[in-house]
Design brief:
Layout: H1 4-24, E1 34-38, H2 45-60, E2 66-70, H3 77-84, E3 92-97, H4 98-107, E4 119-128, E5 131-135, H5 143-152, E6 157-161, H6 167-179, E7 183-187, H7 191-199, E8 205-208, H8 210-219, E9 222-227, E10 254-261, H9 266-280, H10 283-291, H11 302-323
Parallel strand pairs: 1-2, 1-3, 6-7, 6-8
Antiparallel strand pairs: 3-10, 4-10, 5-8, 5-9
Helix pairs in contact: 2-9, 4-11, 6-11
Length: about 325
């Protein structure tokens, strides 16, 4: 019979044992599932990336079980906090991006995590261009048409995004600034619900990621007006860049990356980095990304990714300030 003291001590002993094995370089992962945490619901670009990566990543990690864990809300802050507070054992990974680690620190007065000290950087994953689109039956064919229509009907225009603090939010705010129009931001809890609101006619403009917008553009239900970048993308050839669309001052693109909690043992960090880099180098994965308008962009090392993130923070702080975007 186990006494009460033994039962209470068991979880602590297990955690201590796991930490000791991680530090000692014991084989990892050790039969436990790995959770890939995404701050958006199914149907958006984050969910697409997570599910595209999960199977090849599992193979690279020797047949590990990868669980996609959707934790939407607060511009991905809920997901980021969850990972920051998790055990530093490599079994909880954040699929975040410039929004979690560069935009939100500039947009929110207080965050429940430190974007640098609470995380172990692993690798960048992909770029994140945005598409400005309207319903195909709107009669709007380009950004000039949109600006004319907004000028004729001031105060009546809204744009839908996957949430506050996302690159879509910044693009919409910048669009309002460069056109001189008052456009109301309507944030949703993910790309799929923002798309549905535009298709239903509840919101006039979608600022969406390629995996969300492109299927509807190809189906003829949405009309793409422009990318959020000045130049076109090689994997989205049918959508003009903002310069060709007449608004060269609009030039914003984001990126996706992966992190774990801080103080992850180096052997596990390096194993994760190698696995992600191998997956992102696979032609099948790159082709799947390109089909959805994204480009795989693995980092050279975890250290290089960490330096990249820190260099991006002041850049995005200036973009937030310039766009006039805020989070309540």
């Amino acid at each position: 019979m186990l006494n009460r003291r033994t039962l209470l001590a068991a979880p602590l002993a297990l955690a201590t044992s796991r930490h000791a094995m991680a530090q000692s370089g014991a084989p990892w992962p050790m039969g436990r599932p790995i959770r890939l945490v995404v701050g958006f619901p199914p149907g958006g670009s984050g969910d697409f990336l997570a599910r595209t990566l999960s199977e090849p990543l599992a193979r690279e990690l020797g047949g590990a079980t990868i669980i996609v864990d959707n934790r939407p809300g607060a511009g991905s802050n809920i997901a980021a906090e969850h990972v920051a507070r998790s055990e530093a054992d490599g079994y909880t990974i954040l699929l975040g991006g410039n929004f979690t680690h560069a935009v939100n620190p500039a947009m929110y007065r207080r965050l429940p995590f430190d974007p640098i000290n609470d995380f172990t950087p692993i690798s960048r994953v992909s770029d994140l261009p945005l598409i400005i689109a309207v319903r195909a039956d709107s009669g709007i064919n380009n950004l000039a048409d949109l600006a004319t229509r907004m000028g004729a009907q001031p105060g009546r225009w809204n744009y839908a995004t996957p949430g506050i603090g996302t690159p879509s939010h910044l693009v919409g705010a910048k669009l309002a600034k460069v056109t001189g129009q008052d456009i109301t931001h309507v944030p949703f809890r993910g790309g799929a619900p923002s798309l549905q609101a535009v298709l239903a006619g509840d919101v006039q403009i979608l600022v969406g990621t390629p995996p969300v917008a492109l299927p509807q553009i190809r189906a003829g239900t949405l009309k793409a007006l422009s990318l959020s970048t000045r130049l076109p993308s090689p994997v989205i050839p049918d959508v003009p860049g903002s310069e060709a669309a007449g608004l060269p001052a609009l030039d914003i693109t984001g990126w996706w990356g992966v992190w774990t909690a801080a103080r992850l043992p180096n052997p596990i960090r390096d194993r994760l980095f190698s696995a992600f880099r191998a997956v992102l180098s696979q032609q099948a994965v790159q082709a799947r990304f390109a089909q959805e308008g994204l480009q795989a962009l693995p980092s050279e090392s975890p250290e290089e990714f960490g330096r990249f993130v820190q260099a991006e923070m002041p850049i995005w702080a200036e973009i937030v300030k310039d766009a006039g975007a805020t989070a309540e």
